[in-house]
Amino acid sequence: MDAQITEISQLLELRDIRKQFIAGDVTVEALRGVSLTINKGAFTAIMGASGSGKTTLMNIIGCLDTPTSGTYLLNGRDISGMTDDELSVIRNATVGFVFQSFFLLHYATVLENVLLPTLYTDSQLKHKKTHTAKVKAMEILKTVGLSERALFKPRQLSGGQQQRAAIARALINDPALIICDEPTGSLDTKTAAEIMSIFTELNKMGTTIIIVTHDSNIAAYADTTIAIKDGLIDAPR
Amino acid sequence: MKLRHKFLAANIYLNLAIALKSLGSFKLRTFLAITGVVLGTLSLITVANTSRSMELKTSTDLEVFGKNLLSVKSGLTRAHATPSDLAESVRLTLADARAIKDSLAQAATVAPAATKTFPIRYMATTVTGTMLMGVPMEFFKLKKFTAGQGRLFTEQDAMAKVAIVGAKAAEKLFKTEDPIGKTIYISQQITAPASNTTAGETYISQAACEVIEVLEPMSVDLAGINEDNIVYVPLGTFMKRLTNTTSINLIYVEAVSEEAAGRLKADIEILLRQRHNIKKGERDDFTVTDLKDINSMQTKTMKIVVTLGMITSCISFTISSIGILSIMILMVNERKVEIGIRRAAGAKKRDIALQFLTEASFISLIGAAVGLLAGITLSVGISAAAALPFAVSPYGVAIAFAASIATGIASGIYPSIKAMEIQPVNILRS
User: Fold this and answer.
1) Residue by residue, what is the 3-state secondary structure of chain A?
2) Which strand ranges, in their side-by-side order, compose the sheet holding A69-74?
3) CB–CB contact A123 B428 (8 Å)
4) Residue B13: which of A40, A133, A166 has the closest Cα?
5) Domain spans of chain B, in order of start
6) What secondary structure letter does DSSP report for B242?
7) Which residues of B touch A88 (CB under 8 A)?
8) Is A185 in Cβ contact with B428 (below 8 Å)?
9) Which of B106, B188, B240, B353 meets the CB 3.0–4.6 Å disulfide criterion with B260?
């Protein structure tokens, strides 16, 4: 009974994850045996200096990359050996990304940007699509305070607004996990605080959030911080 | 399932909307690439439509001319003759025509005709480029011309000073006036001989003819004569009053049946060679033409035009596919981040490939649509100018669209592969 509850509440588990990159004759080991567990509903920060391996770890957790060795379980499924197509399906349904540079399509409207992940969602897996997706996108834009800007181009928005649009895009497919890579890196302190409060709100509503940063002020919003140093987990703080 | 289709349609729509916006950042290149497809489609459609028009014309001609009509022309046709051949050609005579009628049983109707260009005047208007044609009364029956408001030649008209004008000749002479009952003057400018006191001066002999009928607009006939720009007078009038010769230059012969036409053609050739004393091995000094010859000539000309059009459109499509290839490569490079973010959001490699292939085909299809409209407009113009019936060739349209989609896909393959190879982890670094 106890074990089952643990099983359900655990979102992802990494066991001895290693990642090597071959650059010419040199083999760089970006991750040298990382093991960690993140539960559903957790708000975790991954901290580390540049070159520490935190980005590689984020890519593996976000199913953008596969480990050289080790096991990665996401929602109880082993991701480590999956094909590119299978990983794409997992990313689409399970992971939402928020990046430092927002990465919005500047020639599309905010609404079109938010709808982007739904283009790759199988309608038979998800609920009724098309116009309902639009309705849902508008609802999400409302919760991030951008409903007035739905038909604007990203360039017409401020940095904070662009990041809100990116957050809305990450939320459109109800992902189990949101991964943020330095989400406030391009923003001023006040705007950064606003964005972080959105993440806090989302986390309160049950979304699992992983935030990758080198900024301890940002990491402070998280409940748990995992420090990465030289491809290994530093002592948890 | 139905929902899925609707969803897919919405996806394609959204993707295209995004693609169109990104094409906007390469306006000139996109324009040039599209222009290639436009020109390719344009030439394909124009050639296909025009050849379809020619086919239609030929089949209408067959009905109008009658499948059993032959024409005998003095001299060789230009295709086979040198200028000296033409000059030396023995003219046909009325006796030749009579001989055909009397000795060949397959010849049902024979109509000899003579042509010459004279200045023709009505009131103050003088027309010089119009041909005068002397014809017997049988001519109209054989050509299936019917009387409208006026009347055609009768037996009593053999030497009469009457004229029937073709539609274009009537327009030139009479403008908006009704020609029937009016008098036209057929003039011959004669230069006085050197011995005369008025040496070098020209004087004009004129024959007055009353217009008794105007013909409906027609086109170019079997003998290559534009029937609209002709003034017809009775053959007797032409030969005795106007030219004072015994030679004619055309004989129209109607065979008793379609099957007899082929045999009749050979028989006429034998008969005329005998009558003109042409020895074995020497060339004919006349040409017998039937509709089959006309058709094969038209087909040959059309084949050349079609081949040229096809080559033009192949070149255009090739150039445009290079153009599309170059903008698609640019687009892939410019949109690396977009590809990365789409991949992160769950796009599979094939979704990305499909997106760029769709975009390339779409560029091409826009060109095809523009080219189609331009091609149809151009073929309307050609048909109007060449007096051909207008026709749209469904094959031409189908081939043009297939070719433009093929161009789009062919030029989209390489950029799509490049796009597929882009890995999101390499792109999405903050």
Assistant:
1) CHHHHHHHHEEEEEEEEEEEEEECCEEEEEEEEEEEEEECCCEEEEECCCCCCHHHHHHHHCCCCCCCEEEEEECCEECCCCCHHHHHHHHHHHEEEEECCCCCCCCCCHHHHHHHHHHHCCCCCCCCCCHHHHHHHHHHHHHCCCHHHCCCCHHHCCHHHHHHHHHHHHHCCCCCEEEEECCCCCCCHHHHHHHHHHHHHHHHCCCEEEEEECCHHHHCCCCEEEEEECCEECCCC
2) A26-39, A10-23, A69-74, A77-78
3) no
4) A133
5) 2-61+297-427, 91-275
6) I
7) 343, 346-349, 351
8) no
9) B106
Within 10 A of B207 (CB to CB), how many other CB atoms are there? 17
The Cα-based distances of B167 to A119, B130, B148, B377 in angstroms read: 66, 11, 12, 27
Is the whole model's pTM more than 0.80, yes or no?
no
The reply to whether B5 touches chain A by the CB within 8 Å rule is no
Residue B29 gets which letter from DSSP? H
The answer to whether residue B86 scores a pLDDT higher than 70 is no
The DSSP output letter for B217 is P
Both tokens assigned to B129: 């480029």
Task: Write out the residue range of the structural domain in which residue A59 sits.
Answer: 2-233
Q: B404 CA to chain A: closest CA distance, Å?
A: 26
d(CA B263, CA B255): 9
Residue bearing tokens 């230009």: B78
- Helix B258-275 vs helix B94-103: angle between axes, to the nearest 10 degrees? 130
Farthest-apart Cα atoms in chain B, separation: 108
Q: How far apart are CA B29 and CA B363, in angstroms?
A: 11
How far is the C-alpha of B394 from the C-alpha of B384, rounded, in Å?
A: 20
Q: From CA B180, how far away is CA B389, in angstroms rounded?
A: 29
A125 touches chain B (CB under 8 A): no
- The encoded tokens of residue A130 equal 């098309």
How many structural domains does chain A have? 1
Kindly report the CATH number assigned to the domain that includes residue A6.
3.40.50.300
B365-407 residue pLDDT tens: 889 999 999 999 999 998 888 777 888 888 888 988 898 889 9
Q: How far apart, in whole angstroms, are the C-alpha atoms of residue A219 and residue A149? A: 30
Q: Which amino acid is at B24?
A: G
CA distance B146 to A81: 89
Quote the CA–CA distance of A40 and A76 in Å, as a whole number: 12
Complex prediction ipTM: 0.91
The alpha helices in B335-393, defined as continuous H runs, are 336-344, 349-385
B2 touches chain A (CB under 8 A): no
Q: Determine if residue A161 is left, alpha or beta; phi over 0 gives left, psi from -120 to 50 gives alpha, anything else beta.
A: alpha
For residues B235 and B113, is the Cβ–Cβ distance under 8 A?
yes
Chain B residues in contact with A129 (beta carbon < 8 A): 3, 6-7, 10
B27–chain A Cβ distance below 8 A for any pair: no
pLDDT tens digits along B255-311: 888 788 888 888 998 998 888 888 888 888 888 888 777 677 777 877 888 888 888
Helix, strand or coil for residue B346? Answer: coil
Spatial separation of the C-alpha atoms in residues A127 and A139, rounded to whole Å: 16
Q: Are B241 and B209 in contact (CB under 8 A)?
A: no
The H or E element that residue B116 is part of is: strand B107-117
pLDDT, averaged across chain A: 89
